[in-house]
Design a protein that fits this description.
The chain has twelve helices and eleven strands. It is of the alpha/beta class. Strand 8, helix 7 and strand 9 form a beta-alpha-beta unit. Helix 1 crosses helix 12. Bound molecules: phosphoric acid mono(formamide)ester.
């Protein structure tokens, strides 16, 4: 693998990167983590560089890990709120003096800085599945500088990198690790599929034994499922789907229970654009909670993961999130290190 191949590249989904390249990102992240831990200066790596961050949705971890990361690397991250600029919009979605076409925003920002990072999903794109990813791809088409996906409606690749790095740190590798990505109940149906889809992509790419568990009605994107099956065959792991949370948790090494929206919530033709129906499916599955009783089904040394924010008392019980098996804060910290690695590699 030619390390130069990272330079100037977009980071939109792990599907665009080979396993070898993903491992190089993780190695770089561990090196940057070591430097951070021993207070070894590394602010020359992106000195004078600018990252533009456009957030259509709220964030704690993503915004602060990118912003802190750029400071540590010697650069600067600008926070851009579509509510206080001309919101970047695709052709056909424009509103006079409220929005500006993505092609124009992308070509302006790429004259001024060194990368553009974008978060967009859900309401800003009317829950039209794939529209947010299309918007990010459109930025990538027009800008010559790297575009970084900070979560769209399909993928959250930075979260997936942090997830697989955390597993590597806890288990020393991936072979034979049973990784369970499970749906869990939340009172809110306004949750994209990006985290579970990217988590199962990352886990199967690394060769883990992956089980995706969810009630009927919470199915994920077929394209992602096909990709995961392909990675399982290629990299010696496995991939299975279950509609039973308890069955999935049996013998698990990693449990990752997390809400994502029901299919009817998505606009036609993927779903039905029916929030009420999505809510009904959610409400009939309130027992999909990760509690002490379900953790008993997993291995004694199993870890509990969550990307955060977690709906405490719904997705998981407090004693699980705050318990000895929880690694959620290690996982959150790893966002910083993996994103610094992505930026160093692509923005050089
Ligand atoms: N996990 C994650 O992306 O967190 P934020 O929504 O706070 O950025």
């Amino acid at each position: 693998m030619k390390t130069e191949s990272f330079k100037g590249r977009d980071f939109l989904t792990l599907l665009d990167y080979s396993r070898e390249e993903v491992e190089t990102i993780l190695d770089t992240a561990l090196d940057l983590k070591r430097r951070f831990a021993v207070d070894e200066p590394h602010d020359h790596l992106l000195r004078g560089r600018t990252l533009f961050m456009i957030f259509y949705n709220q964030s704690l971890r993503t915004r602060n890990s990118f912003e802190a990361g750029m400071t540590q690397l010697g650069g600067h991250a600008h926070f851009l709120d579509p509510g206080t600029m001309y919101a970047p919009a695709l052709e056909g979605d424009e509103r006079a003096y409220e929005t500006e076409r993505v092609s124009d925003v992308a070509r302006v920002l790429d004259r001024m800085g060194h990368a553009i990072a974008i978060r967009v999903y859900g309401d800003p794109v009317g829950w039209v599945y794939g529209r947010a990813h299309e918007l990010i791809r459109n930025f990538a088409y027009w800008a010559d500088i790297p575009i970084i996906n900070m979560e769209c409606d399909k993928y959250h690749p930075c979260q997936a990198l942090a997830d697989i790095l955390t597993v590597k740190e806890k288990f020393g590798g991936y072979e034979g690790v049973k990784f369970v990505m499970s749906w869990a109940y939340s009172p809110s149906v306004h949750k994209p599929r990006a985290v579970p889809q990217s988590a199962i992509i990352g886990a199967t790419m690394m060769g883990m034994d992956v089980v995706l568990a969810h009630p009927e009605g919470m199915e994920l994107d077929d394209e992602v499922l096909v990709a995961c099956q392909g990675y399982a065959e290629r990299y010696g792991g496995s991939f299975a789907i279950s509609n039973d949370m308890r069955e999935a948790f049996e013998g698990a090494d990693v449990v990752y229970p997390k809400a994502w929206t029901a299919v009817p919530m998505l606009a036609k033709p993927v779903g039905e654009g029916d929030e009420k129906k999505a809510q009904e499916i959610f409400d009939s599955n309130k027992d999909w909670i990760c509690d002490a009783e379900k953790m008993e089904l997993a291995h004694k040394q199993a870890i509990y993961m969550h990307c955060l924010p977690c709906d405490r008392g719904f997705e998981a019980a407090n004693d699980v999130i705050d318990g000895p098996q929880s690694v959620v804060f290690d996982e959150a910290e790893n966002r910083l290190h993996v994103q610094k690695a992505v930026m160093v590699l692509t923005m050089r």
